[in-house]
TrEMBL record:
Protein name per Swiss-Prot or TrEMBL: Uncharacterized protein
Superkingdom of origin organism: Eukaryota
Source organism of this protein record: Oryza brachyantha
PROSITE patterns associated with the record: TPR (PS50005), TPR_REGION (PS50293)
UniProt cross-references to InterPro entries, sorted A to Z: EF-hand-dom_pair, TPR-like_helical_dom_sf, TPR_rpt
Bias kind Basic residues: ranges: 227-236
Region (Disordered): 224-250
Keywords for this protein: TPR repeat
Length: 548
């Protein structure tokens, strides 16, 4: 006799209301199992079980898994507007904006007065750059529900992105009138006021935000604003002796060919820009805190059935929702909301490349090989895990510790497409032999991986950034952004101004120094600078190298 569905369903509802999301999920899974066993007798409640199970999974940060249950609920009950709205919101949460737009439009078609759906549709439209329609959707949400905090806040963000600072500040003020402790609105209001040139009002708003949250980044923003005000250049005078209101740019951006390096240890400007971008992704995903050996553990303990791709090649592929479960184990130290942000970044940057066809499935071995270089651990161990992940794939099984050259090249092409998209290798396989049947050992693979032009030689620059996260340079501040320099300091040898990692990578120099070329030397710490100062008589004999 089939198990009664409703006791499990109601128990799940009670547990969720108590904040016991994991237990609620287990009850919903039992209800789902009973409903599927009960056949048509439970058909009426089955969509709602899927919806509530999805909500419980979202509360744990498992948004890709939640999407599958919302989608199933919408299939079982096409008129379920809430299931479609939740699906759209979850898809937005993992960065799948086009799919989110479609689901939310369907929800609104079924329920035109659905304020939350209009708000989330506005967010999806803003994400894909359709700001005119986004404004309309936010406004519809506000018209339907004048105190809709999310719609007001998101409309403020859209106006901020568009440079409409006055309008943005108005939206954030309305948010604060409804929810006085909304510290993000208070912080963004400060930024909007700063955009209007209202520095004093911005400082007050920042202080209010700091009172609300006590976050160190808000305190740093206040300190930086004070520093900028102290060092702000005086505006030029008009003919009448008064300020003419025309601010002067304090920096210029110069082309890469004008940046020269003093010594080979100074990082190339473009390499640093790419490495900074990868480092930012590493921080966002928190993969930099994941021990690379955990990937090897997953490969040893995860049993993935072999399937066949469209090309007929065997692979260990899994659905994105199943991959999310593995990621949860790898990033078990994260809170649910932080984990959701990590999955979104991974989905947008990595899974979109690995699942270019939109099948919803990912080659797990290739995924492990892609993330291994940015996990924590010694560089040599990261590279070894990359190779082991490629060996773990069915195509390499039984190959006695070697992989096919074509697979190695395919991996490197994907790796560069993920991490260095501006320097993609669209022609790499054709140049090096896409169908090369030869096998390569680990040593030969390392030569390919370390190649600075066609491989992932940038890893050494990335590791340098990782190691220098907490290195400061005394009282030295960047001549452009005025922040204390953390990490490497890039000193222009002729005029002695210093740049931080970010400003050097962006090619910014003080507008007071407009030269034909700039000669930079990189200092990893102040000890290096002191030694160099003591040996300054050797400076002019150093070889100058132009950026490639």
């Amino acid at each position: 006799m089939p198990t009664d569905v409703r006791p499990h369903f109601r128990a799940g509802n009670c547990l969720y209301a108590l904040g016991r999301h994991s237990e609620a999920k287990e009850e919903y899974l039992l209800a789902l199992e009973a409903a599927e066993a009960g056949g048509s007798q439970s058909a009426d409640i089955l969509p709602q079980i899927h919806v509530n199970l999805g909500i419980a999974m979202e509360a744990e940060g498992m948004v890709l898994g939640a999407c599958e249950h919302y989608r199933e609920a919408a299939i079982l009950c096409p008129s379920h507007a809430r299931a479609l709205k939740l699906l759209g919101s979850a898809l937005f949460g993992v960065g799948e904006y086009r799919a989110a737009e479609k689901a939310l439009e369907e929800a609104i078609f079924l329920k035109p007065d659905y304020a939350d759906a209009h708000c989330d549709l506005g967010s999806a439209l803003h994400a894909i750059g359709d700001d005119d329609r986004a404004v309309q959707e936010f406004q519809k949400a506000i018209d339907l529900k004048p105190g809709h905090v999310d719609a007001l806040y998101n409309l403020g963000g859209l106006n901020m992105d568009a440079g409409r600072f006055v309008r943005a500040a108005e939206m954030y003020t309305r948010v604060l009138s409804i929810r006085p402790n909304h510290w993000r609105a208070q912080l963004n209001k400060a930024v909007a006021l700063l955009g209007q040139g209202e520095s004093e009002e911005a400082k007050k708003a920042l202080k209010e935000a700091f009172k609300m949250t006590q976050r160190v980044e808000v305190y740093d923003a206040i300190s930086h604003l004070k520093t900028m005000q102290k060092k702000k250049p005086k505006p030029p005078k008009g003919k009448d002796g008064k300020d003419d209101g025309q601010g002067e740019e304090t920096f210029v951006v110069v082309e890469p060919s004008k940046f020269k390096r003093v010594g080979r240890k100074t990082t190339l400007r473009q390499d640093l820009a790419n490495a900074l971008d990868i480092r930012a992704f590493e921080r966002t995903t928190k993969l930099g805190r994941c021990d690379v050996e955990l990937l090897r553990k997953e490969m040893n303990e995860t049993d993935v059935p072999i399937s066949y791709s469209g090309t007929g090649n065997p692979e260990k592929s899994i659905r994105k929702a199943a991959l999310e479960v593995i990621l949860r184990r790898l990033l078990s130290f994260l809170k649910p909301d932080t984990f959701q942000g990590s999955v979104k970044a991974i989905n947008e940057r990595i899974l979109s490349v690995l699942d270019a066809s939109g099948s919803g499935r990912v080659d797990l071995g290739m995924f492990f090989a892609i993330i291994a270089p940015i996990c924590s651990g010694p560089v040599d161990r990261r590279k070894r895990v990359v190779f082991d992940a490629l060996l773990w794939r069915p195509a390499s099984e039984g190959s006695r510790g070697q992989i096919r050259r074509s697979d190695a090249l395919a991996y490197i092409k994907l790796l560069r497409a993920v991490y260095i998209p501006t320097h993609g290798a669209s022609d790499m396989l054709e140049m090096h032999g896409e169908s090369d049947p030869t096998m390569v050992s680990y040593t030969e693979f390392l030569e390919m991986f370390n190649d600075p032009d066609w491989g992932f030689g940038i890893l050494s620059t990335l590791v340098k950034l990782e190691d220098s996260d907490h290195i400061r340079h005394g009282r030295h501040t960047c001549s452009i952004c005025r922040y204390p320099i953390i990490g490497s300091r890039f000193k222009e040898t002729k005029h002695s101004f210093s740049l931080c990692n970010r400003c050097y990578s962006e090619g910014k120099v003080p507008s007071a120094f407009k030269l034909e070329e700039y000669k930079f030397k990189e200092y990893g710490n102040e000890s290096e600078a002191l030694i160099d100062k003591c040996m300054c008589f050797n400076l002019h004999s150093k070889k100058l190298e132009a950026d490639a």
